[in-house]
Amino acid sequence: MSFFATNDPLTPAIEFRNVDFSYDNKKVLAALSFELGRGEIKVILSGSGGGKSTILKLVLGLLKPDAGKVLIDGEDITHFDETKMQRIHDKMGMVFQEGALFDSLSVYDNVAYRLHERGVPEEDVESEVRSLLKFVGLEDAIERLPDQLSGGMRKRLSIARALVGNPEIVLF
User: Fold this and answer.
1) I need a surface site. Which of 80, 86, 107, 168 has the fewest CB within 10 A?
2) 59 and 116 part of one domain
3) Residues 55, 118: one domain?
4) Is residue 172 within 8 Å of 1, Cβ to Cβ?
5) Mean pLDDT for the stretch of residues 133-144
6) What 3-state DSSP class applies to 24?
7) On the CB side of 24, how many CA atoms lie within 13 Å of its CA?
């Protein structure tokens, strides 16, 4: 996982404070504490069931810890509802394990989706999308659909989509 943010350089981009989490009666995280500063990259390795996906879901607010706190840019998101989490999600880009691409949208429209949702003018959307597609080496596939791409190309498309809008935090 990697995380990037641009606010106060002394406040961690992401912080877990003594976080516990269990699925039914199986404890997955026990008193997990860590900080990630701006520009830092952190890799979490574990076997299956070790809590990697759970950590991501806690950062995204999709799960709530049984105990402890999750902070994003110094803000405790532990009890945020969906409405409050939207502001936090706007700071983030996410590359999902399975890609999570829109199969019916072209490469261009997959990357442009977030910008269109925000009402960004099309000339700005086109400039950013083309720049990101060039960055990931997909500028020649701009009109193709995801099912017309190789597995590696789909992963690069997911990366471009996660980076659109210059998010402060990127999760892989």
Assistant:
1) 86
2) no
3) no
4) yes
5) 96
6) coil
7) 1
Contact 70, 59 (CB under 8 A): yes
Q: Please, what is the average pLDDT of the chain? A: 90
Q: Which two tokens mark 138?
A: 């997909």
Number of other residues whose CB lies within 10 A of the CB of residue 168: 18
Provide the phi-psi class of 32: left if phi over 0, else alpha when psi is between -120 and 50, else beta. beta
Indicate which CATH number applies to the domain containing 59: 3.40.50.300
pTM, full prediction: 0.76
* pLDDT, tens digit, 9 for 90 and up, residues 152-171: 999 999 999 999 988 888 88
User: Residue 125 and residue 99: Cα distance in Å, rounded?
Assistant: 21
Can you tell me the distance from the alpha carbon of 6 to that of 38, in angstroms, rounded to the nearest whole number?
Answer: 6
Query: pLDDT-based confidence at 5, cuts 50/70/90?
Result: very low
User: What does residue 36 show for φ and ψ, rounded to 5 degrees?
Assistant: -125, 120
In contact, 101 and 157? CB cutoff 8 Å: yes
Domain boundary among 89, 117, 135: 89
How do residues 56-108 score in pLDDT, each as one tens digit? 999 999 999 999 999 999 999 999 998 999 889 888 888 877 767 899 999 99
Within 8 A by CB and 6+ apart from 158, the residues are 95, 96, 99, 100, 101
Estimate to the nearest angstrom the gap between the alpha carbon of 163 and the chain centroid.
9
User: Beta 67-72 vs 75-76: how paired, if at all?
Assistant: antiparallel
